[in-house]
Specification:
single chain; mainly alpha; 5% strand; elongated
């Protein structure tokens, strides 16, 4: 089990910055709850997420294998 910061979550999910994670993505329903480890000075550290929970959340958003592909748009050839 590994705890990762917002920048690592962003990289894992192909977002451009950790700020997108903390300000937008982490507020989505079902997104894993972060932990905040105490700092040496006694403060509250930056949010960290369990990497395995982030992966499981992202996988839960996939379409089921039985889902039908989107219909072709008029005039566009798909292969």
């Amino acid at each position: 089990m590994r705890y990762i910061d917002a920048n690592a979550v962003a990289h894992l999910l192909s977002y451009s910055s950790g700020r997108q994670i903390t300000e937008r993505i982490s507020r989505l329903p079902g997104f894993p709850v972060p932990v905040r480890f105490p700092t040496p000075s006694g403060g509250i550290g930056q949010p960290r997420w369990r990497e395995d929970e982030i992966i499981a959340w992202a996988e839960s958003l996939r379409f089921p294998a039985t889902a039908h592909p989107a219909p072709a748009r008029h005039g566009i050839v798909t292969c």
